[in-house]
């Protein structure tokens, strides 16, 4: 029996494209995508990101 692939190799551009498509699909009024499900998926994608900060020196954002 086949198993699910648990390891995906996506680039930053791929993730950006997925997030943009989900945001656009959730705001359209066609009803093809459940806005709550799209929002939950966007939240799970956001929680899996790794945000890097420099270890040395002072961090200045923006």
Indicate the topology:
Blueprint (H helix, E strand, L loop, with lengths): L11 H16 L7 H13 L15
Helix pairs in contact: 1-2
Descriptive key words:
62 residues, mainly alpha, 2 helices
Please tell me about this protein's structure.
- Helices cover 47% and strands 0% of the residues.
- With 62 residues, it is an all-alpha fold.
Outline, from the CA principal axes? flat
Topology order in helix (H) and strand (E) letters: HH
Q: What structural class is derived from the secondary structure elements?
A: mainly alpha
Percent helix range: 40-55%
Q: From the alpha-carbon coordinates, what is the Rg to the nearest angstrom?
A: 16 Å
Mean pLDDT: 80
Number of helices: 2
Poorly predicted residue ranges = none
Write a short abstract of this structure:
With 62 residues, the protein is an all-alpha fold. The protein is built from 2 helices and no strands.
């Amino acid at each position: 029996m086949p198993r699910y692939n648990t390891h995906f190799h996506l680039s930053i551009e791929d993730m950006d494209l997925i997030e943009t498509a989900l945001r656009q699909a959730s705001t359209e009024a066609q009803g093809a995508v459940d806005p709550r499900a799209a929002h939950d998926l966007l939240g799970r994608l956001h929680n899996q990101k790794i945000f890097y900060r420099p270890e040395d020196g002072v961090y200045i954002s923006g």
